[in-house]
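Table S2 (continued). Query chain:
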Amino acid sequence: MTAAVNPAAEGRPPATAPRELRVGVNVVANERIVTTEGGQAQMLFLDESAFSIGPNSDVVLDEFVYDANAGTGKIALSATKGVFRVVGGKISKNTPVELKTPTATIGIRGGIALVNVAPNGSTQATFLFGAQMTVSTPGGTQTVQRPGYTVTANTPGGAPSAPVQATTAQLTGTVTALEGQAPPPPGAGPAGGGQAPSDNRVQQTQLTQLGSSNAPQSVAPPGPGAPPPPPPPGPPNAAADTTTQAQQNQNQSQNLGLSFAGTYSGRFRAAPYYITSTFVNTTGVVTANSSNTLGFTGGTISNGVLRANLVSGSSSSSSTTPIVVPISTTGLFNFTTGADTPFNEVSGTGFVDALGKFFFYEFSNGTNRALLFGGHPIDTTFATSQSGFNVQAYSLRTDFLNSNSSAIPFLSDFSGGNISGATISPFYRARRPSTASNASSQFLQASIAITGQGSAQKSVIVGATGSTFVNDSSQLTIAGGERSSARLSATGVTVRTSSAVSSVPDSAGASLFGTGQTVEYFVLNQDNYPPGSGTLVPNLGFQASHDNLPGSGYAFDHVASRTTTPSGIGTTRTTRTLNGYVGGLFERNTSGFPATILQNETGSPTDVVIMTDAATNRMGAGFNTSAVSGPTTNYDLSFGSLTGGNAGRGAFIDDNVFAAQENQAVDQLVNGQTATARLLMVNSEVASETDFLPSGVSFCSCQYSEWGYWIADIAGSAGRDRVHLGTWVAGVLPSLPDIPLTGTATYNGHINGSVVSASAKYQAVGTFQNTWNFANNTGNIAITNFDGVNFSGSASASNRRDFSGSFSASAGGGVRNGQLKGSFFSGGGDAVAEQGG
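Corresponding output:
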């Protein structure tokens, strides 16, 4: 349906005469929409998607299919020239909105994008917000997940450019072309471009009252016309409207005009948070700094302006500061305010949810950066009315303006966040399955990037886990921590970071925003709730760089927006115990870097124990391992917990998606002595990277066993030991009488390990094959392309379940030797379904 239009816009349905588009007119499949120099139009779809068309544009609606009950469908358009804005609705959360141009196909999933198609077909697409945008040509595909980045496709067969940050001129030019005012022709009244079809004008057409849940044909009037709009609203109440005339003029010039029902709560603070940073008002008074964040409730958005009172101090001695800020769906603004607000001239970027549920802005006054967000808090009964189990997935958007932020959540560019090719999992939040003792609502998110082979390799892994609980303000909140490990170069130091992770509350303690009991948005930073406490401690857990990295620290502000939960996540949950093996290289630092490399030598099938509890939504794990190449050092490490409060920090989403940090409620032991440790373990379904695999090598598609990575930073009496991208494998150990006495089987999979070659340290993967004879309990080993070398060997099992062996290869003018230990794992009724070791 046409929702807003300037008269210089024409629709050309297939097989019928052209018609002038007006508000309320149905646009049919394969209809071509053409605007002249003064024409603009906006289409609203039944799923609440919106498509804005600028002047001098030519676009065809190829397809619109929508199943309201399932929330699925398809939107496809083709454009030959013009400027467009796509705001994805319900369909885009599952299927990207598709816009084809002469040089590219653009997909927008759950977000907002600007597209500029030149008359010669050259296409520039800019991602403003959402899950992701893809730009595809016959020459390749570029995926953009960071707001404010643009991709260009200049020729029909050429490859799209790599994403680059859009300049202010590019963004301003596109927005101006899309929404700017055009002068009326001489001697005439207001022409097509005299006033842009703003969201406020759309509201005045009664479309919101008619309801987007109705089919377009049910609200369109007979004939080509549209229902007359209601009379324009009367003048605002002078006593309630504190906007200065200069502000009103500025707001009108930007064609903002958004109005949403309901009140908003949120927070304003200066950034970065980890240093003394202030944001001052026009009289020089500090409004926010690292110890004084300002919350608000009861804010309103009307006619494109947010009005709220910022509250600082305790409830008994609080003070308020009025704030008046323009809000725009373009996500861009630059304005000058008067004396009734805390700011001088500021500019920045951000977004507003298409339905007004949430907004988030970062902006600068030329000296400091500030953060402002707000939304509709969820129903507070949510905290006590949960029943059943479900998993909600969210996409994380990293900071818009922080020059040190990266595309990888929770990391700075100087702590591994700038390593390319990251696999970033959704932020999973699992609601507790019941009110059973120790039941918990957990979250996890993990990312991994491994790029390059051998001495050219760089790698990083980061994970966050925690729980959802009721804080001291009787509000549901999210809190936990992150751990990361990075090897910025194969010959460099392994570095690590750690920090708290917490949802940021408004002045009433609410930090989860959405509709009813559905959590759709929240903001994560490094505030902290100490274990067992519901009281927020600001600025406690900022992420420090621990190895003299270029930055002194890093503070993140990430927006989490609800997205479609991948199919199958949360469906298979089993209370079980897995056992297995752990590997990795220890880097010991006693008097400075570089560290001494200590080989990990273990071999018992109970070195790893992983326990999951479907009734309580929790998991715990223990690793027993040893470092040798000198005095043997024994480690007894504990991850997560099945009991206790927040200390466990283990998250069990399903049998294939889980992760845990160190259990803070028990001692980590080195040679039996208490040690301080920062740990993380994730399974491969949460975080695994395949881009670095050599040709012909792939990871095992194991059905019954689990494998993954672990990292450690352990401070014990012998020094500080670190493990980067250590590996583990575990499964259900079969009973010995169930193992066959005759027959043969061939097991195919992968071998994944850490390599030290001269001064370089890196990860390598090869194929693994073990052809086993159950009659004599022996196997033939073949390893292919592990670090460029092929190995062969043999193994045998003394107890028929646990085997050991050796392998070797001629390489580099010498011989390389290796040893292995492993076990059979059962599954699907087969006692020897898989192997791991």
